[in-house]
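sanity check this record:

:::
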Amino acid sequence: MYRLTKSLLLFSACAALGHVALGQNTPAAKPPAAMVAGIPVNYDEDKVGNYTLPDVLTMKNGQKVTDKQTWLTKRRPEIVKLFEENQYGTMPGKPAGMRFNVFDKGTPVFGGGTIRKQVTVYFTKDTTDQKMDILMYLPAKSAKPVPLLLMISFSPNSSMSVDDPGVKQGTMWDKNGKKVPAPKMGLGSMKKELIERVTGMGYGIATIYYGDIEPDFKTGYKYGIIGKYMKPGQTIPGDSEWGAISAWSWGLSRAMDYLETDKQIDANRVALHGVSRLGKTVLWTGAHDTRFKAVLASCSGEGGAALSRRNYGENLAHMSDTSRYFYQFAAQWHKYAGDFNLSPVDAHMLVALMAPRSLLLQTGDTDLWSDPHGEFLSAVSAQPVYNLFGLQGPGNAPWPAAKDASLAYNPLGYFMHQGGHGTVPSDWDIYLEYLKKFL
């Protein structure tokens, strides 16, 4: 068996070309690579190429959308279907055999001001393999259901919560497709200080390990939830069937299924947070499942909030290389790798699907691979949909400099920290203020 090492845990906690800073200091930025997977990487604004974005308010039949009701009942479902068919793949619904086991019903921690709660969600009647654990911290003294920030994380729950030995021991995937115990190595961001800060606001904070739902490697469908839904004799997912990002998104919706049963949680006020590929995941989840009230998407980049038609940093050709992230998306999406302009969708349409709910796009000024400017331009192009609801986005404002929070607290918000890929500790000041305003 492959021996679990610190490098394996780091592999699960890091993005492909940049450290995902889960509550730690971001290392100094490295010079951007000129070539990835044998494909050139462009970092020159003058060479992004010419492109025309699909009009987010023009339906497939040519009809213009001029009111919020037409958006909600016609154009929005049309765009969701386009993303299902062309980028993320279709997902199954709520499984009939799903059930919940609240095995930690509320244990006082950190001096008693906070309680810990743990739940196992079983996706199938067979409880052996397909299941995930939810770790929650809630205010100990709350007279009413509390809002919740739900994070999907690269580390198992027992590695995320570094100050609480009472968290159930997590497992991780090894290279042989086996789950092995996860070491507690202090990579997590759920430290006592942050947990108490959130619960002191009267909010809850929770985390799910993405590997509980679907492994993050190219043959992961053999072991995760995708494989359970494959037809007899089927060996790989079909062209428009779900990839790993939709599988992780599906798991978040199953978490919401549980939260709707928990009387301590206000299920109408649940926000999502994810970093890098998990930033893509929470964006798609919020777009697909309107039960989530707000999304905090950190450095989601290509396949997330960055415009695909804009050839800057990582592009679809890089993602479509079979040695990299082909498995995260529907196979159909990779057919546009030769010409990004052929895709019927782009990131501004994904961002627009959150309207009228709240969305904060958080980026880093040295994270060129993820194209922070492309994420800003995506928000600008999604603004017309928020306008239908009388809600503010970036409007005509110029691209803000790093640490400029002038656009951060709009319903469609944007903030760029000074530094690289992921979430840095100072971002939490922005996140929590955003949640106070919109959650």
